[in-house]
């Protein structure tokens, strides 16, 4: 697990590294510039014959820009042009050093003071090194004008560390102006604000490069946010054991589907199957029986009427919600289920809506139950939120107070734990944005619970594998990954973990 830092904690990590590695601050900047270029080349974001405008401020972000320009020149890039935006009086020491280092080279440099008119932009690519994590207020005046001028040029932009004008943490508002970046190459850790959907106002994609800041120091910093890494998923995953049998891997009960939305139940059951549940039973309406038997012969069916006429303790874990629909019957069913809940539970979709309307049911959920709301379901449960940042803070409060695990689904899914930590899952991609993905995740989570993973482990591993399955399919060239295709890939992803 890697903790994510705020901009001010990152500055402390920078200072600590300089003092303890030890490394001179100017050399750290040199490393950052090198890492920026190396990644840009690896991703084919820049080419030697391309005309590039490097826009620099006069702080350390600008210093990075000058070091990048010089190193690009040394790499054989010849069509380089530099703007220095001199709207602030202060220049950082490392900016000054890098300016002295580049002034002797045959690279054209233009400086702009507050009232200077800005020329048309002829270059095809802009490297944005004007303001970085030192931003301390929204842009205004001449800064606003320069950013608007660059945005209007509609050129491809690669931002150094963070787009100029975008705050690294705190509220992101559409009304803020920043230089829109197609790519951002950020140092050491992603900025927390990259993880919220509002970041799409300011940037398209980000990449993180290691610049060798002191990881021991970083690990010691208190943080609310932790990135789930592939190592974390690998450490949780347990291989199937010799001499094991279906009884070894638990029995999942899914309560899902209605006449019109049997697909949700089928996808949930299929995901449960492919994630390794020993046995899977689906409690579905009678009208869905033929579909279930035809598509998933491995899954057993129970009618809604029969559910409470049999011992529920034969099941190891339960998921309730996908495709249930809204009706009095479903509310009653939830109330009966939660009257004596005795097994780990995943609560999704329509079951979340029942909770939203019957908040007293919250108290009956077994501790560590996993709730899997998307944004709208979350707001129905816990109130409207204008900013994702506030929504995630609320998820943390609720998870802590109610001793539940809240999996707030998003491109970067936030897993809020009862201990107050927020884990962020980085796997997954926009090709997966279609109906049925949530049903698949619920099936995966219940299958992991049934196999004996603790709820926290199931949430981490389930979210990781779900996104990873989608990522591997997208890497094969699939622009869209339907849920049933993702599901059939899960067992392979587990096998190769
Ligand atoms: N951390 C690391 O590990 C490493 C960091 N590195 C790099 O350093 C960057 C951070 O550099 P930084 O701290 O010098 O700040 P930076 O973004 O250049 O801006 C400073 C200037 O902006 C000004 N200013 C602020 N807001 C403003 C506004 N709204 N409108 C106008 N002005 C505004 C502010 O002026 P002030 O308000 O203080 O007078 C100040 O003069 C970081 O992003 C990365 O690129 C790497 O080199 C190596 C390792
Ligand atoms: K920048």
TrEMBL record:
<keyword id="KW-0547">Nucleotide-binding</keyword>
<feature type="binding site">
    <location>
        <position position="439"/>
    </location>
    <ligand>
        <name>(6S)-NADPHX</name>
    </ligand>
</feature>
<dbReference type="InterPro" id="IPR030677">
    <property type="entry name" value="Nnr"/>
</dbReference>
<keyword id="KW-0630">Potassium</keyword>
<dbReference type="InterPro" id="IPR004443">
    <property type="entry name" value="YjeF_N_dom"/>
</dbReference>
<feature type="domain" description="YjeF C-terminal">
    <location>
        <begin position="229"/>
        <end position="497"/>
    </location>
</feature>
<feature type="binding site">
    <location>
        <position position="323"/>
    </location>
    <ligand>
        <name>(6S)-NADPHX</name>
    </ligand>
</feature>
<comment type="function">
    <text>Bifunctional enzyme that catalyzes the epimerization of the S- and R-forms of NAD(P)HX and the dehydration of the S-form of NAD(P)HX at the expense of ADP, which is converted to AMP. This allows the repair of both epimers of NAD(P)HX, a damaged form of NAD(P)H that is a result of enzymatic or heat-dependent hydration.</text>
</comment>
<keyword id="KW-0067">ATP-binding</keyword>
<comment type="subunit">
    <text>Homotetramer.</text>
</comment>
<keyword id="KW-0520">NAD</keyword>
<comment type="function">
    <text>Catalyzes the epimerization of the S- and R-forms of NAD(P)HX, a damaged form of NAD(P)H that is a result of enzymatic or heat-dependent hydration. This is a prerequisite for the S-specific NAD(P)H-hydrate dehydratase to allow the repair of both epimers of NAD(P)HX.</text>
</comment>
<dbReference type="InterPro" id="IPR036652">
    <property type="entry name" value="YjeF_N_dom_sf"/>
</dbReference>
<keyword id="KW-0479">Metal-binding</keyword>
<feature type="binding site">
    <location>
        <begin position="132"/>
        <end position="138"/>
    </location>
    <ligand>
        <name>(6S)-NADPHX</name>
    </ligand>
</feature>
<feature type="binding site">
    <location>
        <position position="438"/>
    </location>
    <ligand>
        <name>AMP</name>
    </ligand>
</feature>
<dbReference type="Pfam" id="PF03853">
    <property type="entry name" value="YjeF_N"/>
</dbReference>
<comment type="similarity">
    <text>In the C-terminal section; belongs to the NnrD/CARKD family.</text>
</comment>
<feature type="binding site">
    <location>
        <position position="161"/>
    </location>
    <ligand>
        <name>(6S)-NADPHX</name>
    </ligand>
</feature>
<comment type="similarity">
    <text>Belongs to the NnrE/AIBP family.</text>
</comment>
<dbReference type="InterPro" id="IPR029056">
    <property type="entry name" value="Ribokinase-like"/>
</dbReference>
<feature type="binding site">
    <location>
        <position position="128"/>
    </location>
    <ligand>
        <name>K(+)</name>
    </ligand>
</feature>
<keyword id="KW-0456">Lyase</keyword>
<feature type="binding site">
    <location>
        <position position="164"/>
    </location>
    <ligand>
        <name>K(+)</name>
    </ligand>
</feature>
<feature type="binding site">
    <location>
        <begin position="409"/>
        <end position="413"/>
    </location>
    <ligand>
        <name>AMP</name>
    </ligand>
</feature>
<keyword id="KW-0413">Isomerase</keyword>
<keyword id="KW-0511">Multifunctional enzyme</keyword>
<feature type="binding site">
    <location>
        <begin position="60"/>
        <end position="64"/>
    </location>
    <ligand>
        <name>(6S)-NADPHX</name>
    </ligand>
</feature>
<feature type="binding site">
    <location>
        <position position="264"/>
    </location>
    <ligand>
        <name>(6S)-NADPHX</name>
    </ligand>
</feature>
<dbReference type="Pfam" id="PF01256">
    <property type="entry name" value="Carb_kinase"/>
</dbReference>
<feature type="binding site">
    <location>
        <position position="61"/>
    </location>
    <ligand>
        <name>K(+)</name>
    </ligand>
</feature>
<dbReference type="InterPro" id="IPR000631">
    <property type="entry name" value="CARKD"/>
</dbReference>
<keyword id="KW-0521">NADP</keyword>
<protein>
    <recommendedName>
        <fullName>Bifunctional NAD(P)H-hydrate repair enzyme</fullName>
        <ecNumber>4.2.1.136</ecNumber>
        <ecNumber>5.1.99.6</ecNumber>
    </recommendedName>
</protein>
<feature type="domain" description="YjeF N-terminal">
    <location>
        <begin position="10"/>
        <end position="219"/>
    </location>
</feature>
<feature type="binding site">
    <location>
        <position position="374"/>
    </location>
    <ligand>
        <name>(6S)-NADPHX</name>
    </ligand>
</feature>
